[in-house]
Amino acid sequence: MKIKAQNVRLSFPSLFKTAKFGEQDTGKYEATFIFDKAEHADVLADIQAKIDGLMKSELKGKIAADKICLKDGDLEGRPEYEGKMTLKASTKKRPLVIDRDKSAVTEEDNKIYAGCFVNMICSLWPQNNQFGKRINAQLDGIQFHSDGEPFGSGGIDADEFDEFDEF
Questions:
Q1: Which residues of 119-141 are buried (b: 16+ CB within 10 A; e: fewer)?
Q2: Which are the contacts of 52, defined by CB distance < 8 A and separation ≥ 6?
Q3: What count of other Cβ atoms lies within 10 Å of the Cβ of residue 60?
């Protein structure tokens, strides 16, 4: 079940190299998308309807909220998620990453970063195996939409250092 959303904020992107958890490589490319509850109300309702449908038809019942890729940002404990909904998506195959004009974006372009806004496409799928029941999202691709305030520290400015003469 495909989901398309426009102008969502990007968080924790691992789009050019597989993500690491601690020192362990996950083998997956991933990203978390931040949806404004008001601005994206229609797309969030569509996502929730698709999740509810998958739970009913494929998983034959409700599952715990922590087993669903769509989360209430107010419960996540991150200030940038407050008043928002988040959706984490991943894939083992490198996702399509393009610019506004549909040209390929590379890591060296420094165009995609945590805090920028993107258009995204992912696919919801039910998991029902020895690892349990879940609703996951497969990351299909993203398109750069616009710049945003970067998350995390932006480093320091050279003006923070004092000039000095040679020894």
A1: bbbbebebeeeeeebbbbbbbbb
A2: none
A3: 9
Q: How far is CA 154 from CA 24, 114, 157, in A?
A: 25, 11, 9
Domains belonging to the chain, first-starting first, are 2-150 (2.40.50.140)
Cβ atoms 7, 145 nearer than 8 A: yes
pLDDT tens, position by position, 5-17: 999 999 999 999 9
| Cα distance between the two ends of the chain | 66
**Sign, CA torsion 69/72/77/80:** positive
Read off the pLDDT of residues 88-143 as tens digits, 9 standing for 90 and up. 999 999 999 999 999 999 999 999 999 999 999 999 999 999 889 999 999 999 99
> Residue 77 and residue 94: Cα distance in Å, rounded?
29
Answer for the pair 124, 48: CB distance below 8 angstroms, yes or no: no
Using the CB atoms, write b or e for 17-51: b if 16+ within 10 Å. ebbeeeeeeeeebbbbbbbeeeebeebbeebeebb
Model's pTM, two decimal places? 0.87
Per-residue tokens: 126:
């039910």
